[in-house]
Amino acid sequence: MTKASSPQRAGHSSSSSRPAVGVNRWLLFVLALVVIAVAVVFGLRSYHLNTYTIPSASMLPGLEVGDRIEIDPDAYQDSTPQHGDVIVFDGAGSFMPYESETTLKRFQDTALGILGITHQDDAVVKRIIGVEGDTVECCDDAGRLLVNGEPLEEPYLAEPDRPASSSPFTVEVPEDRVFLLGDNRYDSVDSRALLGAPGGGMIQMDKIYGPVETIR
User: Fold this and answer.
1) Catalytic residue check, 207
2) Choosing from 94, 126, 188, 207, which is the catalytic residue?
3) Can you give the pLDDT at residue 178?
4) CB 147 within 8 A of CB 129
């Protein structure tokens, strides 16, 4: 009786362990897929949100048409934008007018937004000339911009032998905004073109995506 019952118990134990092993392998497989999917999503999110292609000549000579740039989206978490920073920002409603959207486009943007990879069609790149509290003026007798009464040296300009702006202006930068210009001043739509518009061509700080970090 003892010898007959032993193989029976052993056989029962072996058959009951097989489903458990299969379930464990299936769980590990699903877990691996989830980890890979999360890694791919965050990789796409990081690349999509932080990489842009230069579409115009407004930032020549530093940024040429077709250049790919990457920004640092966390740069201003512990600091504030500085004079001379080249930034990418949301130009919707200021540099670019608001556009009506179809229900399908809103649905697509919402779905992509959940993953953090919504396409940013209204991204614009310019250089910060004035920050809150500054007075920016054009121009002195040498054709240079004045920031708080001091002439601004701009070695990055596309045409350094010409005045820093084709038209005179004087602006005071309000709180929580920045005044932006392109480096190619004679071929750039920037804050100067919006001085009479709501906001006076100044961009809100929370619309800044980040400063340009690398150029490809």
Assistant:
1) no
2) 126
3) 97
4) yes
